Amino acid sequence: MSETDHVVSLDDVRVHFEPESGLFARDDDVVKAVDGISLDIGENDVVALVGESGCGKSTLGKTAIGTQRPTEGSVSYRGQDIWEARDGDSDAEIPYETIRRSLQIIHQDPGASLNPNKTVLHSLMVPLKLTEPDLNTFDRRDRVHEMLSRVGMEPPKDYANRYPHQLSGGERQRVALIRALLMNPDLIFADEAVSALDVSLRIDMMDLMLELQDQFNTSFLFVSHNLSNASYITGKADGRIGVMYLGELVELGPIDEVIQNPQHPYTKALMWAAPNLNPDAAEDTTGTPLRKIDVPDPRNPPAGCRFHTRCPNAREACKQTPPETDVDADGDHKVACYRAIDDHEYWDSPELSD
Amino acid sequence: MRYIVRRVGQAVITILSVIVLTFLLVRSLPGGPMDYLRAQLMQNRTGRQVSMAELQSLAREYMNLHPGEPIWVQLYYYVSSFLQGDLGQSIWFGEPVSSIIVKAAPWTLFLLTTSIILTFGIGIVLGAVMAYKEGSWFDTSSTVVSMFLNSVPYFVAALLFVYVISIQFSMLPQSGNVAPGLEASFSLTYIGSILEHAILPIASLVVTGFGGIALGMRGNAVKEIGEEYIRVAHLRGISSRRIAIRYVGRNAVLPLYTQFMISIGFMFGGSVILEQIFAYPGLGNYLLTGITARDYPLMMGIFIIITAAVVLCILFADLTYSKIDPRVSTGSGESY
Amino acid sequence: MSETNETFTSGSSTEQQTARSRRSLYRERLDRYVLTPLRVIWNDWRTRLGTLIILFYILVGTVGVHYISEPQIGGPRLAGIFEAPGYPLGTNNLGEGLMSSLVHATPPMLKMITAGAVFATGIAVALGTVSGYKGGRVDTVLSTLIDIAMTVPGLPLIILLVVTFQPTNPFVIGIVLSINSWAGLARNIRSQVLELRDNSYIEASRIMGRSTGGIVYDDILPNIMPFVLISFVNTARAVIFGSVGLYYLGILQTPENNWGIMLNNAYSAGGALYSWDSLYWIVLPMATIVLLSFGLVLFSQGTERLFNPRIRARHAETIDETSPMEE
Amino acid sequence: MQAETKHKFDVDDPIFEVRNASVTFDMERGESKVMDSIDIDVDRGEILGVVGESGSGKSMFASALLDAVPKPGVLSGEIQYYPEDGEPVDLLDQSESEIKEIRWEEISMVFQGAMSSFNPTMTIGDHFEETLQAHGRDISEGMEYADELLSELYLEADQVLGSYPHELSGGMKQRALLALSLLLEPEVLVMDEPTAALDLLMQRSIIELIRDIGEERDLTIVFITHDLPLVANLADRIGVLYAFEFVEVGPAYDILTDSKHPYTRALLNSTPNLDTPREEMRPIEGKSPDPVNVPAGCSYHPRCPLSDENCVQNDPPFQSDDGDTDHQAKCHYIEQTRREIPLNLQEVEYSE
């Protein structure tokens, strides 16, 4: 895919949070939320990022839609560096305003995603006023009613006049989706958009997102800690899935490829964690495959491969230099683990015993 | 640790800015400080003409002013003299302001500390009980009473007490801090008479104050009772007395801290009127006599001392707050 | 159930454009932003009583002043309530009608209250919102300023200012009286805005590219409005207490009459003090002061309901009634 | 009241015997039955999974087992508790002091929001000591046992006990709460959505810990959740709650592979899962029932594809078409359900 038709491309992005610049800040207090990640999101693409909380997936998402300034590396929208356009120094071809409008977000908690003091109608008029200032009030109301019935909230007039506290969790999340879509964005960052919903509503919401994707030709960056949610939505849209651990991308590839033969031990752990309805499947009811349950302190991540403190098959070799991403099979399934390289000296280095 | 440094710094800045403020106020006297001083001296003293040189020395002595020097040097002298405790000379009383303050301060402090402790004590206990009996007649009636008492200004209550209790029923002394003729000693009679004189002023502050605290406490306690960890504690078999004190009581009192700090400033300010009504020889009373007599050095001195006292109390409350509420985090979010 | 606005047709197809009059649009807005708050106020006994008391004072201050003549000396001395004809509330030692002096003291007091309350709340909201929303250095500077202003004791500062500048215009007095009460309010508003700021719907508006002003107006203000109104009422009460106090002490001298001056006269007028029958002379000004501030307190109790969307929904005609069953 | 001899669903040594337990709230809109005369038994030492959508009354069921229904709810019916040694006791007519002995010593509970289960101004250690004191246990011995529990849950005891709730991560708080509920060595552990707010990996790890602890201490666990797959391979038996009553109860394996109630099947088909093909995923239409006016007859008939006149009229009793009494459902047409509503699990060919 040529450079320009990437909606958003992140090039070796790093985001480090210094603690408050106080008198007593120690150097190793810096939290390396995102540490060197490159990712390209194409047109009408669906990319899912899976990882435990604290692995930096939300920070990466916010960097991708231009609300979090990267400490190093660059984030560009259709080839135009977002932050250069924002700071207005270079003669940016795409003005920052259009960039800002074409990158939107859906939040996790349906309760807090809508302004409790405004009716649904008002909350949905705001994006319309921004994108199509020339419409008069009645046309805008029609557009809103049209969208409400499009997502199955019938009769639209009643729903439009309601306050958020009069909607169920699922309905609120759908209104948040409409609000993002009315900006006709090129990329929507869904930050755990379905995790707060009841299990049976999640499918509904994910189907809706995919249905509306074509009408508004937007791509989705779907972030979740739940592998089965992520694999459902990326599977249906035949997108890619990335696994993140402590600020690094440890595995990235097309959904079926990654699910069928996961390479990285952490991806396997996530697969183990994904609930499996099929009681007959080879059920390893052994305990947690990880050596340690809790995520290490992000302020000083372990040396070398960051997963070695919890990885079931970690070895001495893993402690030294962190493995770069090795290309596997036909080049689009990357993994950051020595085990993917057959002749690596990892195989003969001794087992790690904590 | 950083939080403490910031708070102390802030307190110092406050006191300094108040001193500078009084400096500006004095300089902006109608017609300038010098001829104000001359008019005052003429009026109080011998009434003869005062030469310029003599006036300058008097100005320095009374008001730490060094006329004729550039403004910044004057400011420097003014501030440094204050910091060394020389608050200038009171014209009306003819004695150094600092000695007046030393004489008057203990009375005001005694009056205010007891009122604050009583107001908060009664307010917190009443508020907690109202929360526990939420919805009962006791709760609604004491809410209305607290609301009503809270809307009565303390000096109105003072006037009423004086009028009804001390004059009509002549039960408690109408004014003064101790019966005349008793010399200062720790004898029972002396202390008894101090208390007897102090009842009415303290009562007028407490009666009109505890209402607001009770309502605040009730609101917090009701919210606290609804929390889930109260139900978990109950299920764990924790005695309801301990829940009432250690869970609901403790967590509901914390938000009152800001109200506590604000009321310190309010009460110190209020002492001015209160002490006038009861002719109670405290800082407020002297401030008032200074005002009526346009005795600027006295006024400025007392104002600065009152502010300093309030600032120190609030600083103390602020620092101890983080000990009590472990959740205190003073981080300020990143800027947008 | 809400009656549907028949003039609105569902916008399924645009060409079926019936005459959607703008009238129904304004009717809906009128209902939601004017009539509903009034219904909410009327619904709770506290706010109803509070509003009545406040309206009574406003009426007295604006209309009453024309009907009741200026107080003059020469009436019967120390007449009790309803004792002397023409003086329903009795007279003071100089024969001035108490009712007329009470009434004529109200307009300046109302001016003082509005001036002081508007000034203090305005500054508090502005500073509190900006420092809470902006964060970073701006926040540290502003919050230090707020904390300093908060620790300075109010009354002595006011007294000094009044003594040095001798203000007479009621509006100026109102502002001077609330010179440092805005600090406490600003600090509370700042902490509320800090809490709100990281709310996801505000982040969503920011990501949509809405201007900071738009975000503050639409997303932040409605949430802190209950508190703003309570602070408005509290400052008003502080101004009442302050002004009456200063008038009583004789520090504030203005040509107009004031409840404080009446209190002073009643309290210090020689013999009046020692007999029961002149009790009315002291109690009347006290009662007027306490009643007004009680009305304000009652009103402030109900403000939280005024801005609570759940309660507004229940009272608004144009809001659909059915709400999902809370689990 | 004669105790029914035949235990429900062939439970042989019940620790709990719940007989038409209901909870009613009187809201202004009318009296709402948030728990509708539930009959169920809990076997000693088993893990019973209770599955229901939000708003199906499952939290109420958890509180009922501790006779701790929040006011103004009224709990009626009869809940017999059979302690290991000692005669059965009906929880509902225990005095306040008697119920205090039972709560946390015999039956303890883990709440969903671990965040809000700890007093924010007290350290975790204080909570442990306070509980020991309230039940007159020896503090030092109790705290030793607490250390043991915490390390078994992969937590450093002294670091956790010394810190305040806001200093711990979600997963740590949940495990500390679990340790707190096991402090007095209860016989029954009621868990209301204990892992809902956590990451999937943490959830699954804690589930494994619960399984080991359950076996080791021979605990009876009542695990309540809306997430069917989560409990699928943990529970021995599963009870499906719908509209404030159990509509299907049976061994976990049978419920998953051959459920008898249309609602359970719909629930299974609507849960995203790695193995099942994505096309067959279908959400459940319609809205969850309102406790004030529960539909007459079978409560699922408004959303059930097979519902007919018979379902609308009379409420089906518990029955099973193939005679095995340990797997029953409240549905008139069980064999029809099995035939007509496919479980998309059946078509899946096992990939590995």
Q: What layout of secondary structure does this protein have?
A:
The complex is a heterotetramer of chains A (354), B (336), C (327) and D (352).
Chain A: E1 8-17, E2 31-41, E3 46-50, H1 57-64, E4 72-77, E5 80-81, H2 82-87, H3 96-102, E6 103-106, H4 120-131, H5 137-150, H6 156-160, H7 169-181, E7 187-191, H8 199-216, E8 219-224, H9 227-237, E9 240-245, E10 248-254, H10 255-260, H11 265-273, E11 326-328, E12 333-335
Parallel strand pairs in A: 3-8, 3-9, 6-7, 7-8
Antiparallel strand pairs in A: 1-2, 1-4, 4-5, 9-10, 10-12, 11-12
Helix pairs in contact in A: 4-7, 7-8, 8-9
Chain B: H1 2-27, H2 33-44, H3 52-63, H4 71-83, H5 97-132, H6 137-150, H7 154-168, H8 188-225, H9 228-235, H10 240-253, H11 256-277, H12 283-292, H13 296-324
Helix pairs in contact in B: 1-4, 1-13, 5-8, 5-11, 6-8, 7-8, 7-11, 8-10, 8-11, 11-12, 11-13, 12-13
Chain D: E1 14-27, E2 30-43, E3 47-51, H1 58-65, E4 74-81, E5 89-90, H2 96-102, E6 107-110, H3 124-134, H4 139-152, H5 157-162, H6 170-181, E7 188-192, H7 200-216, E8 220-225, H8 228-232, E9 237-242, E10 245-251, H9 252-258, H10 262-269, H11 309-313, E11 328-329, H12 334-340, H13 344-347
Parallel strand pairs in D: 3-8, 3-9, 6-7, 7-8
Antiparallel strand pairs in D: 1-2, 1-4, 4-5, 9-10, 10-11
Description of the molecule:
The complex is a heterotetramer of chains A (354), B (336), C (327) and D (352). With 354 residues, chain A is of the alpha/beta class. Chain A has eleven helices and twelve strands. Chain A has helices at 57-64, 82-87, 96-102, 120-131, 137-150, 156-160, 169-181, 199-216, 227-237, 255-260, 265-273; strands at 8-17, 31-41, 46-50, 72-77, 80-81, 103-106, 187-191, 219-224, 240-245, 248-254, 326-328, 333-335. In chain A, a hairpin with a 4-residue loop joins strand 11 (326-328) and strand 12 (333-335). Mean pLDDT of chain A is 82; it is low at 21-25. Chain B is mainly alpha-helical. In chain B, helix 1 (2-27) packs antiparallel against helix 13, helix 7 (154-168) crosses helix 8 (188-225) and helix 8 packs antiparallel against helix 11 (256-277). Chain B contains 13 helices and no strands. The two termini of chain B are 27 Å apart. Chain C contains twelve helices and no strands. Chain C has helices spanning 22-43, 45-67, 98-134, 136-151, 154-165, 170-177, 181-197, 200-207, 212-249, 259-268, 279-306, 309-315. Chain D has a domain at 257-340. Chain D has helices spanning 58-65, 96-102, 124-134, 139-152, 157-162, 170-181, 200-216, 228-232, 252-258, 262-269, 309-313, 334-340, 344-347, and strands at 14-27, 30-43, 47-51, 74-81, 89-90, 107-110, 188-192, 220-225, 237-242, 245-251, 328-329. In chain D, strand 9 and strand 10 (245-251) form a beta hairpin. The relative contact order of chain D is 0.14. Chains B and C meet through helix 1, helix 6, helix 7, helix 11 and helix 12 of B and helix 4, helix 5, helix 7, helix 9 and helix 11 of C.
